[in-house]
Amino acid sequence: MSITSPVPALTGPDGTGALVDRDILLVRGATEEMQVLLRGVARLRAEGRGLAVEMTAEAGAVPAV
What we know:
This protein is an all-beta fold. It contains no helices and 6 strands. The chain has strands spanning 10-11, 17-21, 24-28, 33-37, 41-47, 50-55. Strand 2 (17-21) and strand 3 form a beta hairpin.
């Protein structure tokens, strides 16, 4: 029996992509990697050929990129 993540792995060229490993979202670019705790992710969405990761914040917080 195989266990799969409820969040699919997204793959792109040159090893880029995103996947979930336990409670961490791993986002890999061509030259860097970012790890984000899933509890801090509000929403993921495609933006053209890119991936937008919207983070959670306290009520009234000023949005930042």
